[in-house]
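Format notes (please read before filing issues)

Several people have asked whether sequences and structure tokens are stored in separate files. They are not. Every record keeps both together, in the order shown below: the sequence lines, then the token lines. Line labels are part of the format and must not be stripped during preprocessing.
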Amino acid sequence: MTILVTGSAGHLGEALMRSLRAQSRWARGIDIKPSAFTDMVGSIGDRGFIRQAMSGISHVIHAATLHKPHVATHGNRDFLDTNVGGTLNLLEEAIAAGVASFVFTSTTSAFGAALTPAIGEPAAWVTEDVLPVPKNIYGVTKLAAEGMSELFARKSRLPVVILRTSRFFPESDDDPDIRNGYSAENAQANELLHRRVDVSDVVGAHLLALEKAPAIGFGRYIVSATTPFLPGDLAELRRDAPAVVERLFPAANALYAERGWKMFPTLDRVYVNERARRELGWQPRYDFRFVLDRLRERREWRSPLALDVGSKGYHEEVFAEGPYPVD
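Then the structure lines:
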């Protein structure tokens, strides 16, 4: 069994390749950029390259994409060619190769404007049933690629699982208020409450999805750290998030104070992973409670895999106004 991993030079692609190699599983990494985890260099937009890369492949994890950070530096056509055209190439060649399962890495960014309730409204409780309202070409093309994947699952009986992952990158936030008000480590620990997941848990979800896809046929799942919140907390989270956190985790304030950290004043959304846990058997380890336990023990709270992959950035150049330009 050989697994094709697209985007093998990226955060998730490298994490997948590291994990598969550590398990002595056959994997072929492809990317437009050379790397220690890339076996074949080429573009997913090149049909001939994909046909060659698919030779001998039995499973596909499609993680390659143009991301939100590329919106200000790449044109709409670039997004269409990569995120939509590249996915179409992979789906068609996967069918031709007779692969047993296809896992497509999507994003919670696809929900777009549905993630931000009106002023005065409770925080959004985001499940797979929320109707996406894309805000930019990134969201539009990821939704289009999801739609094509579902079409191939229905029409060609290709077992497909779509994973809408929340944030797992280690780079500083593009929001200057967050970036200037919180250290990256502080902000990302906070986000594990409602909109972040460790890359080690993301890898685990992908490998389970590969295994379960033939039985599922088609499925779409949110992949985010398990939130401690319940729907009854949503109104207060929008008004006073620290009060909710302190009620659920009475020791959090003292542990945060030792680090000079602080909680976000409000939260506008909560990603819900219940379906992925129930149907995939996924058991994410790195949640907010894990962070507090590690802070108490004065130990690292991020996974060894996350530290090994590290920060990659999204562009060759460095931008003075932030980790990447915002359109």
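For reference, the curators noted about this record: The CA atoms of residues 76 and 137 lie 6 Å apart. The first helix runs from residue 11 to 22.
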